[in-house]
Amino acid sequence: MSAPVTENVQSGGQGEGGEPSVQAAAAGKGRAWIASGGLLNLVGRNVALFIFLALVILASLFVENFAALDNAEVILKQSAIPAIAVIGMTMVLMTGGIDLSLGYVVGLASIVSGIMANTWFWPAPAVLASILVLGLALGLCNGLITQFMRVPAFIATLGTGYVLYGLAQIVSQGSIINRLPRNFLAIGRTPMFGLPSAVFLALAVAVVFHVLISRTIFGRRLKAFGFGARAAALSGVPAAWINVSVYAFCSTLAALSGLLFTVRVNAAQPNMGGGAFTFEVVTAAIVGGTSLFGGVGSVANSILGVLSIKIIENCINLLGVSYHLYLAVQGAIILLAIILGNLTNRRA
Amino acid sequence: MNIGFAARRGLAVLFPVAAFLALGSRVPHFLDLSNLLNVVRQSSITGVCAVGMTFVIVIKGIDLSLGGLLAFCPMISGVLMLAGINVPASMAAGVLAGTAMGLFNGLMVSKLTVPAFITTLVVGQISQGLALTINGGSSIGAFPDSFVFIGNGAVGGIPLSDLLLLGFLALGFFIQRLTPLGNHIYALGGNETVLRQEGLSAARLQFFVFGFSGFCAAVAGLLLSAQLDTVQPTQGDAYQLDAIAACIIGGVDLAGGRGSVPMAVIGALIIGCLRNVLDLLGIHPFMQNVFIGSIIVVIVYLSGVVHRQSELATRGTL
User: Does the pTM of the predicted model rise above 0.90?
Assistant: First the structure.
């Protein structure tokens, strides 16, 4: 009976006696942690958050009128729609593919929603549902071409992108549809807590997909597929189905963004979105730490990526620099993110 | 099997040619000599781009930066020319800029192992942004006569653009078939392990290939601007798709290791004929893009099918 007690006391005594050495060990560990690139790893694991915070701090310090509630509201409103689109792109990038047709789905969805609402007088819920179905159908085409016709994603979606762009122009007959019905505009413009409903819609979509990717079997299978399609297929992951579904999700969300864009500017136009929007969304996803090689990506980080690039766009506006430069700056940011990601990955 | 494969590949090219000639004979004015020369002139931009793109696709890459470079490089040259700097020096500056952008693509692909479609997409976007920024988004024009002559002049009745295309065809063919460099590039696309075992550096080849593609894009951009006597900051958009389509129609294999420069140039001519016929039939360029976009996807699918069949045939299971 006594032996364990003495052991306890002894061990306790040892612990007390060893406290300084434990501290020293902890300090040594800290130094080792920094030396071994632990700091870099911490940043590496949360690149999106660090970039976002760094941008907020820098912009507040150096850009006049940035740190204002009005301006934060503007950034939120502008981020809502790309935030929806970036979720789909993140999923596609997680499989190691890319969807270059995203921006053109936006344009087609925009003009089609305008025609449905204005020319055919469809009620808003019917328009919303039809646009989602349209997106789903387009996405299934991309997915099926990529998966079953074995066409590389960037070629398949480049091809379908041009097709969709052409279709959007033909459907619109070169005109823009203005003055859309009020019930249609209500989808994204209804004020809620001082913000338009589009922001809350984006939030809801983000929560649903965050759960889908990080908390479900589907999400785990998606990551497994991204790390190695063949290994995943051999382990019983329905690889073909996963690959097709990401394109379906991507185009559906892109179509929803197209509809919300149309609502925001109160005009349906076939040129909406396009290559520039695709690029913005890819940039956001990569700034959000999504790996170009597949397997790694998160909804929350990609949305931080969207906020980051929207902050940069906002600063470019506030500083009165040419908007055209925004395109080039986005390119520079994506390169920086790739190079940083590369460095941190090598350390890890 | 090889004969069957070659025959099928030959058919894949001959069939559209025959189809266009047949279609052409039904479309008034298509087969007029002046129209055909015009088609070649219009195809020269796509053709020059396709020469560079062939090398890139042979090493399993893709160059999506053409669209941006086709505007960025002539924009630099154009601004310099209008500032009074002499024509050859201005053109050299534009070509250097394009080559540098291409080399940067090569750097990203070889040293950082970034997928080609990402880095070239990014570089294209940066070039596009810069092309727009340089002159505030508006076009420039009214260049010196000697520059405009390159795009519109003729020597012995043959347009200079056509001669330039022929020159690039010869250059590409020479590099690809008659130099060790060409063999190494095929090796890189066909089987990288063998290349490494031979002690050759993949990185240097990637540098060269992407640099050369940037060079071709710069020249094509200058040629386009010389033809139009303007630099429009988004003028490259239309050629990105066509250059890829030209290579794919010419049988350059996206899976790497297969493809020849002359066939890619023929592909460019086919695209040129196609657009010309559709123009003569009064079909809108947007509808033409729908058509060409679909063709790309279908041909890549078919070439994949041919691949799998020949693979199975070599394994003896077919």
Answer: no
